[in-house]
Amino acid sequence: MRPSGRALDQMRDISIETDVTKHAEGSCLIRCGETHVLCTASLEERVPPFLRNTGQGWVTAEYGMLPRATTTRMRREAASGKQSGRTQEIQRLIGRSLRAGIDRQALGERQITVDCDVIQADGGTRCASITGGWVALRLAVNKLMKAGDITMDPLLDHVAAVSCGIYAGQPVLDLDYPEDSEAGTDANFVMTGAGRMIEVQASAEGATFSRNEFESLLALAEAGVANLVAAQKAAVA
């Protein structure tokens, strides 16, 4: 029934390759099917002005798509002089999600910026960015701990995200672009490794959905996030 031939509860193939850039404190290339995102984490010994002299750190994120990440070339947002509303919304989501999984007091007064650059898009780019962004963040924090700059691990839990939706009347897990573009309901779930929810985005794209359908999507998301967390653990082991 699905265009890819996958089962309703079957995710795309996941791979996470770490240390893919030379200079970033943490980096990975995450592939969720045909969606590929480069994630880097950069450490700075400073914080935004509102956090100075508080002893608390900060994690923020930036997101972008390369011009040929999709079927036709997109103009670089830098060329137009401003970011789209979609880009701003996604990078704020990534930042919020990653901050939910960190003890900012234990991080100390420093900032980690996670950059997520979409090399190739086939649906679920924000979810892949959050999942890969956590891996890059984990690797950057590992370097801080190895250097003795912090003594307590500030990462409280894994953070991962997956999309679900109602496609052709059925709840499905991990939408690719053909499904995402035709789904009657589209949802993104951001969760911790322990299964606690950080953020849920769900909207009726073509038809309203029931509570039972939402609960079916949540059950799929819980299983999907568990798979992503297992991939994260394997990547940083």
TrEMBL record:
The organism's place on the tree of life at top rank: Bacteria
Entry-linked PROSITE patterns: RIBONUCLEASE_PH
UniProt keyword tRNA processing, yes or no: yes
E.C. number: 2.7.7.56
Keyword DNA repair: no
CDD domains: RNase_PH_bact
Reaction it catalyzes: tRNA(n+1) + phosphate = tRNA(n) + a ribonucleoside 5'-diphosphate
Molecular function, one GO term: tRNA nucleotidyltransferase activity
Pfam family for this entry, one: RNase_PH_C
InterPro entries linked: ExoRNase_PH_dom1 (IPR001247), ExoRNase_PH_dom2 (IPR015847), ExoRNase_PH_dom2_sf (IPR036345), PNPase/RNase_PH_dom_sf (IPR027408), Ribosomal_Su5_D2-typ_SF (IPR020568), RNase_PH (IPR050080), RNase_PH_bac-type (IPR002381), RNase_PH_CS (IPR018336)
Residue numbers binding phosphate: R86, G124, T125, R126
Keywords carried by this UniProt record: Nucleotidyltransferase, RNA-binding, rRNA processing, Transferase, tRNA processing, tRNA-binding
Limits of the Exoribonuclease phosphorolytic domain: 10-140, 159-223
GO terms (BP aspect): rRNA 3'-end processing; rRNA catabolic process; tRNA processing
Subunit structure comment from the entry: Homohexameric ring arranged as a trimer of dimers.
Free-text function comment from the UniProt entry: Phosphorolytic 3'-5' exoribonuclease that plays an important role in tRNA 3'-end maturation. Removes nucleotide residues following the 3'-CCA terminus of tRNAs; can also add nucleotides to the ends of RNA molecules by using nucleoside diphosphates as substrates, but this may not be physiologically important. Probably plays a role in initiation of 16S rRNA degradation (leading to ribosome degradation) during starvation.
Family: Belongs to the RNase PH family.
Protein name: Ribonuclease PH
Gene name in the database record: rph
